[in-house]
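#onboarding

Welcome to the new folks! Below is a worked example of what a typical request in this channel looks like: someone posts a single protein sequence, and someone else replies with the predicted structure as tokens. Don't worry about understanding the tokens yet, we'll cover that in week two.

Example request:
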Amino acid sequence: MARKNSDASVGPSTSKPRWYRQLWQAYRMTREVDPSVLWWMLTTVVGTLVVFLIIGIFTNSPVFWLIMGLPFGVLGATIILARRAEKAAYGRLEGQPGASLAALGTIRRGWEFGDEPVAVDPRTKDLVFRGVGRPGIVLIGEGPAGRVDKLLESERKRTTRVLPTVPITTIQVGHGAGQVELRSLPRTVQRLKPALTKQEVAEVSKRMRALGATRLPVPKGVDPMRARPDRKGMRGR
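Example response:
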């Protein structure tokens, strides 16, 4: 029995990574893209301590208020890291084929997105991804404004022929006029107003799976299923 217990004690650990290790990983990833993140974090901590020190001077208890201000300074620095980590994560995906699908992967519930594009322009490599949720069907186009519009419109007409009564929203991802930036894409999709019941969403999803997707693969580049931003890492948890 003693031998079995000793064997078990030296076995591989299945515990989750410590929060400070996740925080360090988020910081390292962010610093590769945004070297100024350290200075922003230090400025936040120092600025917070200065504010609390001023309060302490006026109340004749500077040491007490400095101690009180330290956790608030650390919290502020963590928030700065989380925001810059999110920006850095999307910066890594920017311009990569399938980046929009990776960004949409941060939506936890309410939407179903296919793993492959439903339309691909083999010449320009423009892509269209499709999602189904309570607001209806959303078509996400990757490509320059004006060029990807034709691909989106073609897919919209194709979908309308199958489900003529279901609302269809088209969104272009990019920096052009009328396009949505990659980092704003999940929020834009989540803000769409519901128009279907859960039962209707299930039926639409079933019809869409039967409709299928394009047979052409995603162009070589980042794997959307592996490039989804780490939400825990972004938040430093």
